[in-house]
Predict the structure.
Amino acid sequence: MNKLITYFSATQDQITGLLALLIVCAMFLMIGMLIRPQRYMPEIDLIAGWSLVTLVFVVAGGLGGINFQIITSFLVLTAILSLLVMLRKKRADRHIDFIKSLVLALPLLWLTATMSISQWDEFTHWIPNARYLYTYDSLPGPGKPEPTSNLPGYPHTLAFVIYLVSRVTGGLAENASAIFTVVLLALFSVTLGRVAKQTANEDQGSKIGWSFCAIGALAITVLNPTFVPKIVFTAYADTPTMVLIGMLTVLMWRILNALAGTEKHCSAGPLSWSFGLVAMAAVGTKQPNIVLCCLITLAGLVVVLKDPKISLRSYLRLLPAIILPSMVIYFAWQLHIDYNHVDGEFNFLPIENWNINKIDVIAEKMLLIATKKGGYFGVMIIACLFGARALWRLKTPFDRLSIVIAVLFAGYILFLLFVYTSAFGGNGLVAPSFWRFNMHLGGACVVFGTVCTALIWRRFFAIRQRVNLAWLAIALILCAPLALAYKIRFDLHPPKIYVRTVMEKVVELVPRGSPFIVFDVTGNGEFEVIARYVASPYVDYRGFFIAGYVPTVQNLQKYVRVKQPEYIWIHVPTAEVQEALNVGLKPHHSHLVKMRGLQATILRAWPFPGYKDPNAIQN
């Protein structure tokens, strides 16, 4: 019980951050309603507003050089105008299902709000990108301070969310992106609940109610084979991508059904505009998402060519609305990168460095990884089999969905094989992050599973089942965060908490701008990235030495001669470090030392909190 209380204990700043995030989400909703007046799938309003806000920041801030605080003021006024329009037109109940879904997600929202950033990429680029925006009220560019991020050229759609929340709280809201991810999951729960209700009951009503909101929430969390807490509850873009690609899958399916005459309550035109707005957010979230959007569009074309009920001309007429919004944000960001000479985006290698003769090795590794993730890959292979059958005989909406998901999945696997061959160098031979990249299709996987389950329910159980099980779904989604809190609070890792706490004290002791390096000679770098994140805004961070660099006395001394630091933070005091720096260090302590040549003088030491080896503490 004490641990459970600890898991859910929030500081005043964390509570403020949660409330600020909800305010920003309300602003997105209001702005989204201005550019998307149709009532069908109103949960898309939030994504539409988010997309437009991103575009405004990139164009006005990145290309126009306008201060972000001025842009924020303009966006707030726009949201207020939209609110007045909504009240005048009496559309306040438009998002009632989304509000219900947020209520069901409150335990998870609260738990996420209590968390701190703790994962590698959060420290190296996701949060440093947002911190730069908050510190300087602008994107990086000529004549501006150098960013501390490893990838300052990576899309900033999520960083803009953190920036806006931070402007409300008055301090950097590091975990705002993780909370926003939970909001997106709640939003997608509404979409999944609607898909389940309409498929099972053939009910096209606009409201789905508490029970189907809970069913959608269970589908995207507990029953989702790609739901990995260490990815979901972070600032990573993988889960937002999963939600957005899932939404695009549903929208393309609805567009095709509308063109075929089986979607009775919304026409293909408004759905296409909605698709374009969601695609804009997807492309602004991660670079490769432009490929996923193109694959879904291509999948729609495949269906059109095989479906006798749909004319090719009717689909082609929709392509401007489907394609142009995502192209606008893609090229706007690329123009910002080129115009402002910002480095740090993902690029392909020269052709002569491609692993063309190792494609079979890469494919074999991808297959091996896939065999260990049978839940997700099993569902997607089933979708491919139904998709192949539909190419032979396409008759039903389910056939259209199967083709869309099959083309998306097969195309993405081929794209990943190409990327491993052309962009990862020697590291591509082990297919790094292959499972994590496939999480991007987790939303599409859940959509297919939801439709299959709803069809089976309607066929075999709907008439016989008289007991209302809605209460069970609601109880499960409310209680799940309590039962699984120990898996979600992975941020409570004592060595990571220790490193961050100590580094915050170190930067108070070291004069600003002093040459500084880190010795973490027994670690793999996971603690160093925390130290770098905390220290880099205050010191001249010249580098680090970890276990992979072979920490012999000679190598350590050579590194010090090259980097010429005035200060070194030593995480683990090994015999080699003590000999290299000619200093005696306390065991089971980290140390801040001042350097004069190769002679170190201890300034402070901090004991490890209850352990002897930080690398032996499992997270």
Q: What stands out?
A: The longest strand covers residues 599-607. The chain has 26 helices and five strands.
